[in-house]
Design a protein that fits this description.
The chain is of the alpha+beta class. The chain contains 19 helices and 44 strands. It has a ten-stranded antiparallel β-sheet. Strands 6, 7, 8, 13, 17 and 18 form a six-stranded antiparallel β-sheet that branches. The chain has a six-stranded mixed β-sheet with strand order 22-39-40-44-41-42. Strand 41 and strand 42 form a beta hairpin. It starts with a strand and ends with a strand. The model has no long low-confidence stretch (mean pLDDT about 95). It binds beta-D-glucopyranose and 1-deoxynojirimycin. 1-deoxynojirimycin binds next to helix 8. The site of beta-D-glucopyranose has 6 residues, from loops.
Length: about 800
Amino acid sequence: MQYGYFDDDAREYVITRPDTPYPWINYLGSEDFYGLFSNTSGGYCFYRDARLLRLTRYRYNNVPTDSGGRYFYIRDGGDIWTPSWMPMKSALDSYECRHGMGYSRISSVRSGLAFSQTSFVPLKDNCEIHKIVLTNESKADKDVDVFSFIEFCLWNANDDMTNFQRNFSIGEVEVEEGGSRIYHKTEYRERRNHYALWAVNVPVAGFDTDRQTFLGLYNGFNHPDAVFAGKANNSVASGWAPIGSHHIKAHLKPGESKALVFVLGYCENPDDKKWASPGVINKAPANALLEKYGSPEAADRALAALKDYWDALLGRFSVEAEDKRMTRMAGVWNQYQCMVTFNMSRSASYFESGIGRGMGFRDSNQDLLGFVHLVPERARARILDIAATQFPDGSAYHQYQPLTKRGNNEVGSGFNDDPLWLICGVAAYIKETGDFGILEEKVPFDNREELADSLFIHLKRSFDYTVTHTGPHGLPLIGRADWNDCLNLNCFSKTPGESFQTTANFESGIAESVLIAAIFVFNGPDYIEICRRTGRAEEAAYAAKAVASMTETIKAHGWDGNWFLRAYDAYGHKIGSHECEDGQIYIESNGFAVMAEIGLDDGRAQKALDSVKDKLDTKYGIVLQQPAYKEYHLELGEVSSYPPGYKENAGIFCHNNPWVTIAETKLGRGTRAFETYTKICPAYREDDSDLRRLEPYVYAQMVAGKDAPRFGEAKNSWLTGTAAWTFVSISQYILGVRPVFDGLLIDPCIPVAMKGFSVIRHFQNAVYRITVNNSAGVEKGVKTVTLDGKPLDGAVLPALGDGKTHEVSVVMGLK
Ligand code: BGC
Ligand code: NOJ
């Protein structure tokens, strides 16, 4: 069953009933200030760091789910209801939530009163705007009371949920303008120079800032005493739980509308300008925000600017084809999710609590792949941040903190795939932009300026780290784990509660990873090309030798007969082999080895992918491995600790499905490539939402595998490397519009049934309008390409860089 539909022209997903199988959310904000916003107005917001600078409180894993957000209570005569459905679960005559690009709009009607709430973060300002419109659709006058409600978080989200002996005494607020402006200033006196603002642009009848006074101690959000009494108490919080609530009275004649603008903002003062007078905070930044967004017209203008921003961004890659599910995902939602993963990394979603992880070294590098074409300058800055956390020997902090940009000691290092992802991210950036100059940027190692060297040297250290850390078979040592965080081959953890990710781990010097070997061979040609094109011929020759030798090593020691092995454990035993009882075949090494074109020459590539199809494929995607581990293996770690079918233990871990998709295109099997693409693509499961449960417009990290009782159910939507890799697979390998060092290669690999498509691609300051004709019904192969009417030699469009639009016509077929 469906709970909504795609409105493609508006680039919105329209949710038509509030009781979705799980909260279906959106992200507000694009650079520093972010809000998570569910279809019932749940969620929270933060400035830059969801852990350290959280403005509003959110209780994860709460009962009922998703309670807490920006709420508006209506009192229409005696009738009390919440137009976003939650928290009162009010019966509504109509309801709709439109999630768009960086904004959401909830509209509902009850008893002749229409409500709409448009919520977004304006470009460049640190606040959420909630524009409310009330319309009297009835035939009689209405007296309506509106009560707003948010609950402040005492900034540090971790402390906020744990340190109550302290928290219950420290909360402080200020109230001005009779209550229309509420300021949350906990800890401002001491070590903070920031406060939060919750304001409305009209005079109010009253306000509350103390939670207990507003709600009643034993009430939930669904029964606030103040609303039921029809009157705010003008409470000023002192300790306990500061909130912000305005009480607004509106008289509406039949047909009349009234608009209110609420601003929820983050304000910062320089240390010497913190105070207006003793004990009174300097409101200058708040006043500036309110002046700017103090009217419905101003809010509308800010929303229009946001829409223009997204029009321009998504105009950089768009696709037209018969299959609308593909075009809306590839052209809109997949790219939108790539922006979110770039911004959030793995920090804040409805599954990531915002207090856990920093920016992952490997995650952030992979996120670049789907983002670099959108805002290359931000990708560039990110690359330099990431590289600065690398150690001089090429290894890397597994994570770094976005606020400090420093490596995170708690998680440490030793994930031996990490260094190679830097080559991958930088190569993608250079192919997109042609900016080889980035290689000469001086970048610190371990955040220490005195250790700075060129970015090129960082890449070399990455490359060399793999070359110099090999085990008994000559394959790369796995270290703590490789891409699969749960393959903890040097961990041997017996202590309950100990983290597999961080626990002291010994380096056996034996456990090896075939996946790292394949990642090395995959990135090899790019590294070699980078060396060649920057006059480093000797390094290129050395690298070519190392890559050729690793390829031979994989063929000699990484092949199981019908597929690629996964690894060797600390005893030197095979993992991912037919000799194993469980975990006989894994997806990652097979997808990546074929992506790296290993075995294209001798039939192994095809054999490997056939085995993947035969042993790992399901109707909802390809599972991570088979058979699932049924018992815990000390020598394998977390992967064998999960119940069969979930997460890395044979779940459909979506991230590496597109590796197989790309690998299939290497074999030219376009029909199969497209099949693997569609199976995990959420838009294709829209009418299966009761089983899948999560948003039909974004990828999830995992779908339960065939061994799980809930086979087909998705978890962990939004923050997953799946976003970037699926975008790469569909845009660059299926549709085949792929940046290469010489320009834009056109190399589609599509189902025979797809008779054509067109793509508009902005690339290095020129626009290419590409039309692909496949009336020949082939899966791969370009017969002719014309550029502005002239036949092109080969299929690489040169980077014309002239700011103009160019017509490209491609005919597929045999040469
Ligand atoms: C999860 C992985 C995750 C890791 C690091 C593990 O428990 O299964 O998917 O990457 O934790 O947080
Ligand atoms: C999620 C992590 O963010 C990512 O780095 C890792 O590769 C996958 N889990 C697989 O374990």
